[in-house]
Specification:
With about 550 residues, the chain is of the alpha/beta class. The protein is built from 15 helices and 25 strands. Helix 1 runs parallel beside helix 9 (about 405-420) and helix 3 packs antiparallel against helix 5. The relative contact order is 0.10.
Length: about 550
Amino acid sequence: MKAIASLGRVNVCRGVGSAKATPQFARLPVIRGISTRNTEIGKVIQRSERCAPITVVNAGSQKSGSNSSGGYDYDLVIIGAGVGGHGAALHAVDKGLKVAVIEGHDIGGTCVNRGCVPSKALLAAAGQVRKLKDEHHMKSLGIQVDNVNFEREKIANHAKNLANTIQGNLQRSLEAIGVDILIGQGKFVDAHTVKYSLPGRVDVGGNVTAKNIIIGTGSVPFVPPGIEIDGKTVFTSDHALKMEWIPEWVAIIGSGYIGLEFSDVYTALGSEVTFIEALPNIMPGFDKEIAKLAQRLLINGRNIDFHTNVLATKVTPGVPGVKPVTVELTDFNTKEKVDELEVDAVLVATGRAPYTNGLGLKEINVETDRRGFVPVNEKMQVLDKNGKAISNVFCIGDANGKYMLAHAASAQGISAVENMCGNPHVLDHNSIPAACFTHPEVSFVGVTEDAAREAAEKGGYADKVEVAKTYFKGNSKALAEIEGDGMGKLIYRKDTGEILGVHLIGLHAADLIHEFSNAISMKIPVQDLTFAVHAHPTVSEVIEDLIRHAKVGVKSKTAVAA
């Protein structure tokens, strides 16, 4: 490779001349299967499960045109440095690979900069405001609070500062283990070559070759036709996270995770909210029983109303304080106009679309599906137009559409690295948890009760599906915090103990779900969880109680072993 310093790398020479110098030991190269990650100077950890030994030299010491990866510049190049690309890069370095990431926007991608992370900052601040304004709740704790106020700008800055902090942390974590960060938008030249550049920039760009390539370009907000985005009165979550103003009345199109979380923020800060949902029920992705309770806790008791089975077919921006936003509602079935709303603002929360345009996929004989997703097999290998796997090209995260969550992208990235290293691995997407960070939180892993029973009918074991339930109102810790609203629901096979799905709503539900997520991943039946000990008094005892409510017809392996 020519002119390393002029290619726009942030981590030029692996720490030498990088945006921030890192400790000298962090810049040691990865050599023949020995990683410096999580080591001290002079301490070497040899890993037996490494990829085939590869001598990786410090990029700063490479001569022009030389390489150490079988004729390629890198063992792995990752297009996109979001959470998925970051996770893949860390795991690849652990495996002894020489890695570069190509990023044309922000390190951390959507999650860190325009999604999961800043939204949690807004939810944390709004949640405190809601709690302090709940006079009954505070008096029950013996606390009197008067004149609760907040500063919108400082709440917005909290979200912005958090995103910047996490972005910096991710960048430094890559630099510290010798990952090169190439600035630009990646585009395939062939199955081993990627060109990267930025529009209007002559100081950034170049070509890079790699033995393996991962696509991890993420997604962007999906905006249905007929909706005009102005970024001020009609906006997506990208704009909403900036919290430039707090409208008195906000219509939210879509009642999924994004819509619900923003309704939690807006109502806590004084807004009225109207949900516009295309499907017959509010919160259509939730288990029906959980959705029913969520509606009572998150919608009915707040300044929220909703329209279901309607489409927002035309949305015209307004002017804050001067002209309202108009929303034309059309019946989902008849396609006839049924109503028109005038609100202060509209948040479009109708999901996300893959960011895959401009990748040059035709150069590797690949085409996306009609929605823009890159086709992959169970090993995350990209499929060409003929359905044949391209052995060295992988796609992870939102770009493949399998499960559009940041931690799913990271898990897919780790799986892809294992497969490119010759260690066959298939990620069980059924074991990946999901959470909605409202107050109270909602989480789940696996399938809903309806989906489980439908699958059981087709599979011939309809009489074997059972449901166990428990409630937070019996939990000491939840009651101590006067947060007893909530329930847990476990769907399992009573003949084998296989966990099919778990759904929680209540205090810390997003943290509690992982015990079941890991059990599904490790194929541990529910009866084998019976002897797990949970500290008292903690909210985790809700999980213990839920496990004990399950009645399985076979004995626990743990009990038999004992």
